[in-house]
């Protein structure tokens, strides 16, 4: 008895002093054929990238995730291996082959980390590869809850009446109290010892069947309390082909909220010495970016029509970038803020105004991207575009502007995908209504309390510029 008690005390203190390791396990072993997909669901393209890439990126970018394991199938393993260098998934340390059933894939991950429990206090966070919109808040709350509980589930309260049917008579058997009904999502988090013990018990049961990992803990470790973290409506799982339309719309509307664009003074000090080109840098948001970047020591080059560089002129853009590169020796980053806004009904717009809007807002961005490529490739640099909230839904009164800004979003995502192999990051800023000369000209005098200040947008933009993400549309809002 004394020996056992001493061993328990030693084990407690060893465990207490162990380094914690939060490991995200991305479950990507399904093939999708039962739901009518022509290829594995996790490889279905969403905004130009396989859906699993979006999912892994969420955990790659989360500061409290230490490591990622991907559990996949034989048909997808080559793709998964290729994603690691292409998208710089530095946290992915394991790619494992799973089984036909969900629990087999989870069990593979549990066994893969058994030896590490001697050295680390491991928490496993299981997540569906086809839930690409999980947000930072949900991941953070799951991890934090594991400090107090050994099992954590993410759920949403049911919003509709739930009916329990009689399967034989096809009639209602029961209508439970909706307040007690929650709909399960992922991630699900576990202390390593808890999920291992639950599966060990489950494997002794010849009738063992389950659809999720919390279900295993609930059935085989009934004394273990499973804490519920509130999920999110947009944490949608790709189950059927039509779900892709819903996920795509959520992504389009909320892409900018994936990451917090840090922009404090400590971070912006990293601007010192970088060579930055700002197209449209003489007014509004552009001039605020120029002023702030220079204040932190960046070597900023300003281009606009007023300085003799019209982005609709391909040759002017090419020569300007060549001149900057020759003088500075490199170009680390390029921001394009240049835009025009014609606020009038489409039927009233002149052909000249239509052409000017398209040429400046979209073709100009194409020119900048085209002639930026080689410089950014050499510097492993960053290209930042600007869009507008009207890209999500075309607005009456500025239809051509809305359409061109939607094109910028698609261009951002496409280039981010194409240029990932060259270590070029491409992102897009979507600021809320901002107090700029262009807005005042189009909308007149508005309540200043409802408008963003250009300096706020500039600070957030430079924070994004210094980050490692690519392919995102960052919403910058007043709240």
Task: Note down, in words, how this protein is organized.
This protein is of the alpha/beta class and 479 residues long. It has 2 domains: 16-257, Spore Coat Polysaccharide Biosynthesis Protein SpsA, Chain A, CATH 3.90.550.10; 265-476, Rossmann fold (3-Layer(aba) Sandwich). 39% of the residues lie in helices and 20% in strands. The chain contains 15 helices and 17 strands. The chain has a 7-stranded mixed sheet with strand order 5-4-1-6-10-7-11, with helices on both faces. It has a 6-stranded parallel sheet with strand order 13-12-14-15-16-17, sandwiched between helices. Strand 4, helix 3 (77-86) and strand 5 (92-97) form a beta-alpha-beta unit. It is globular. The N and C termini lie far apart (60 Å).
Condensed summary:
The chain has 479 residues and is α/β, with parallel strands linked by helices.
Q: Please state the average pLDDT score.
A: 88
Total number of helical segments?
A: 15
Q: Would you identify the CATH architecture of the largest domain? A: Alpha-Beta Complex
Number of strand segments: 17
Q: Outline, from the CA principal axes?
A: globular
What does the radius of gyration come to? 26 Å
- In percent, how helical is the residue content? 25-40%
What summary fits the major beta sheet? 7 strands, mixed
List keywords for this structure.
479 residues, alpha/beta, Spore Coat Polysaccharide Biosynthesis Protein SpsA, Chain A, Rossmann fold, 2 domains, 7-stranded mixed beta sheet, 6-stranded parallel beta sheet, 15 helices
